[in-house]
Amino acid sequence: MQGEFFARPLTPDLWADFEVVMGPQGACYGCWCTYFRMSAAERKEASAAEKKAFMQARVERQPPPGVIGYIDGEPFGWVQVGPRADVPNWNSPRTVSRPLNEADANDPQVWAVSCFMMTNRRRGQGLSHALLGAAVDFARQSGARLVEACPMERAKQSKSVSLFVGPVNIFAAAGFEEVAQRKAGRPLMRLVLGAAA
After folding, report:
1. Cβ contact 23:122 at 8 Å
2. Are 197 and 153 in contact (CB under 8 A)?
3. Which of 13, 16, 25, 167 is the most buried (most CB within 10 A)?
4. In the chain, where are the structural domains located?
5. CATH superfamily entry for domain 5-192
6. What is the pLDDT of residues 121-177, one digit of tens each?
7. Is the Cβ–Cβ distance between 186 and 152 less than 8 Å?
8. Is 140 exposed, middle or buried (0-12, 13-18, 19+ CB in 10 A)?
C-alpha cells in the first residue's frame, strides 16, 4: 500500500470527499450508491442528480451509511456498510444477498457491506483490504454482531466497475465465511463479531 491510510465514517461534513470518490458522474452510471437503497422503479425514474440528492439526504441522517478511505489525506475509496434494514433492496427475496433468516433484514445488529467504490487511479492496488477492515471496525464499534456481504468471485479485470460488490478474496482474507450461494460466483458471506446483546 502506498502512503498512509485512514478511514472515517461518512458524516455531512465529509460530503465533498464522497463526491471526489464518486466522481462527476456519480460512479456506476450515475448511481451515487443508491442501487440497494431505491427500488428498481425509483432508480429508473430518477436522474443522476436526483439520486445524488437522495444519497445526500441519507448522509444528513444518522448513523453514517459507510466509511470513506483516505491515502495521505486524499479521499479515494468508499464502502457502504450498515444495518441490513438501511439497504432494503439487499434484502429482497429475489436477490442473491437476501438474508438466511427473514428476521435478519430488520435486526439492527446484522449489518451488510453492500458496495465498494474507488477512484480510478487507486484501483488494482490492494486497497480494498484496508477499506474492508475499516468497514468491519465501524460495524463492530456500532454494535453489529454479524456482518454479511455478497461479493463476486471473478471479474474480467481487477479494476472492473462490476466489482462494486467487492471481490470474494478480500472477504475471505478478512475471515468472512460462505453461508449460502444462490447464484454461481456470488456467495453470501458472513463474519461473526459477537453474541447477541
Report:
1. no
2. no
3. 167
4. 5-192
5. Gcn5-related N-acetyltransferase (GNAT) (3.40.630.30)
6. 777 677 889 999 999 999 999 999 999 999 998 654 444 445 578 889 999 999 999
7. yes
8. middle
